[in-house]
Amino acid sequence: YESLDPLLKSHPEWGTITDEQKNLFASHARKETGSDYNFDGGFGGPIPFLEGIGATFYLSNNSIKQSYAIPVSRDAEYRYTTLGTVRLEPFERTTVTLNGLWKVQDGMSSVRPAFGDRPDAEHDGGFMPIDNVRSVVRNTNSSEYRMYWFDPTFFPWLRQTTLVGGLTVNHDFNSSTFAELTLSYLTIENNSPSHGDTRDTTKILTRFGPFPVDEMPYGKWQFAGNHRLAGYTYPSYDDAAGLGVFRFRSKEGDLYDDTRSDQARVKLDIASQLDDHHYVKGGMEYNRFDLYHNFWERWNRNSYNIYEFNYHRTPSQTGLYIQDQMTFPVMLATLGVRFDYWYGGGGDWPSGDPFAAGAFTPQPYGNDTLLVQYLQSGQSYIWDMWKAYDRGHPGFLQPVKNYFSISPRLGVSFPITENAKFYFNYGHFRSAPPYYSMYLVSYRYTKNGLYDLANPNLEPPRTISYELGAAYNFLGPYTLRVAGYYKDVTGQQGDVNYQNAAGTLDYDSWLN
Q1: Per residue in 376-422, pLDDT tens?
Q2: Where are the alpha helices (DSSP H) in 48-170?
Q3: What pLDDT score does 242 carry?
Q4: Phi and psi for 489 in degrees, rounded to 5?
Q5: Cα angle 55, 60, 61; round to 5
Q6: Dist. CA 327–CA 427, nearest whole Å
Q7: Domain boundaries, the chain
Q8: Are 389 and 359 in contact (CB under 8 A)?
Q9: Averaged over 332-345, what is the pLDDT?
Q10: Average pLDDT of 313-333?
Q11: Which of 130, 195, 375, 476 is least buried, going by the fewest C-beta atoms within 10 A?
Q12: Long-range CB contacts for residues 95-99, cutoff 8 Å, separation at least 24
């Protein structure tokens, strides 16, 4: 401030803050306005002219506004959910239910595009939490990001639209046999609507001494280094004068999230009481997913900080099961088995050579404009490059694996005394790994190149569980239960890091 002293002496009016400037500052600072709300309502009844088939409907809506603990580019998150149900009985012993859902969620993402944050459930995927203190403070409180002071546009906008349609048919064949068929389709589509610069740098609000100010720090203005305003230059991305490296701007970035996930589901269950001793259930289930993950992040005008996470896969799961519940005077037993086929999504994967530096390190991309246009069109430069690399290095791309599993289930219970029983349960269970660990790729077009490479060949982990116990009804409704559990889990996915001796290759992946 020593260099300002002569200026202050020649301009004594600079030492006075006017009422107009005080009012301007008060109106410029973000204030808490409005309030949260949660509206939940619905109505229903018989459908006119369809009373003969017992047609009824119910329609409901839930609208929520929740304000963020720390306001950012948006003060609050909005969620609107509309549900509709129609139920009818077109035939004797047959019930049909139609369901529909429409949901829109408008809020902020915790992803920081300039840093290439991963959009998965373990990191910053999805919406910013309402209690967003951690998301905001980590940019100002850690040694790496402490230079960034309050920057409302640091985080990108995010909108998600969900549509669900479903049909359920129940039919009683007779007094002992019934079936249920369920068909459903789910679509979840993301959109990040705010790209480019939004700050108005043409309007000078006032001057504090020699320093002109506009609407800073509000409004995104990432594509500029030093802020030149009315003859004065703010150094280093809006450094506050005299405070060194502390910035109000720099790494806002753009999020391009045009992901879409579709799920088609078919489920059929049949149950029958064959006789006094056997109650048999069986069925099938098919789930198909269409994962169109068009997701990339950008900071600044060049490709130095462009991160790509694109993939498109169509995995599915097919399951069959049968179960017999056997009832006898001295024992109750349940015996069943489930068959599952896990389709990994088809296509190929760069799993032939985990140390292929020519494919995983930064690759030439033409020019910045070409790369941005390429990604905006929904294409993947890195995947096109990998296909070209495979043509010169056969075996680099390998077919994605599929898996088949058999899971037995057993439950036994028999009385010890009139008020006590002994029971034992045993079963195998499997579930698909998280899809981000199977398909997510994190690639930066300069610097490191590949950061993360998922593994679609992960086998669904297996859990074998045992339970042994006894229950004793010692007084009226009071029952004492003593049990022991044992669980054996194999094949869980874990992180693995690949580095070559030269140090040019360094990325993470997953293995069972």
Answers
A1: 888 888 899 899 999 999 999 999 999 999 999 999 998 888 888 89
A2: 133-141
A3: 63
A4: -110, 125
A5: 160
A6: 20
A7: 55-197+239-511
A8: yes
A9: 94
A10: 93
A11: 476
A12: 95/169, 95/170, 95/171, 96/167, 96/168, 96/169, 96/170, 97/167, 97/168, 97/169, 97/170, 98/166, 98/167, 99/164, 99/165, 99/166, 99/167, 99/168, 99/184
DSSP state of 128: P
58 beta partners: 44, 85
Of residues 430, 410, 403, 404, the one with CA closest to residue 488: 430
Phi, psi (5° rounding) for residue 152?
-60, -30
Tell me the HSE value of 262 on the side-chain side, using a 13 A CA sphere: 9
CA distances from 92 to 170, 171, 172 (A): 11, 9, 9
DSSP string, 275-311: SSSEEEEEEEEEEEEEEEE-EEEEESSSTTEEEE--E
What does the alpha-carbon distance between residue 392 and residue 478 come to, in Å, rounded to a whole number? Answer: 73
Exposure string (b/e) for 105-135, b if CB count within 10 Å is 16 or more? bbbbbbbbbbbbbbbbeeebbbbbeeebeeb
Q: Provide CB contacts within 8 A for 243, sequence distance 6+.
A: none
pLDDT category of residue 230 using cuts at 50, 70 and 90 = confident
Please tell me whether residue 95 adopts helix, strand or coil conformation: strand
Inter-residue contact 407 to 340 (CB < 8 Å):
yes
Answer yes or no: are the C-beta atoms of 300 and 307 closer than 8 Å: no
Residue identified by tokens 């109505």 is 43
Please give the average per-residue pLDDT across 498-502, as a whole number. 88
How high does pLDDT run on average in the chain? 86
In the block, tokens 């580019």 appear at 73
Q: 232: which strand partners?
A: 229
- At residue 461, φ and ψ (nearest 5 deg) are -65, 150
Phi and psi at residue 344, to the nearest 5°: -80, 5
Phi, psi of 155 (to 5 degrees): -110, 140
Instruction: State which fold the 55-197+239-511 domain adopts.
Output: Maltoporin; Chain A (2.40.170)
How many CB atoms neighbour CB 155 within 10 A? 27
Q: Which residues lie closer than 8 Å to 77 by C-beta, 6 or more apart?
A: 65, 66, 68, 105, 106, 107, 108, 127, 128, 130
Residue 146, C-beta contacts closer than 8 angstroms, at least 6 positions apart: 140
Question: For the segment 255-297, what is each residue's pLDDT rounded down to a tens digit?
Answer: 889 999 999 999 999 999 999 899 999 999 999 999 998 888 8
- Looking up tokens 């200026």 gives 7
Share of the chain above pLDDT 70, in %: 91
CB proximity list for 400: less than 8 A, separation 6 or greater: 344, 345, 346, 347, 348, 349, 456, 457
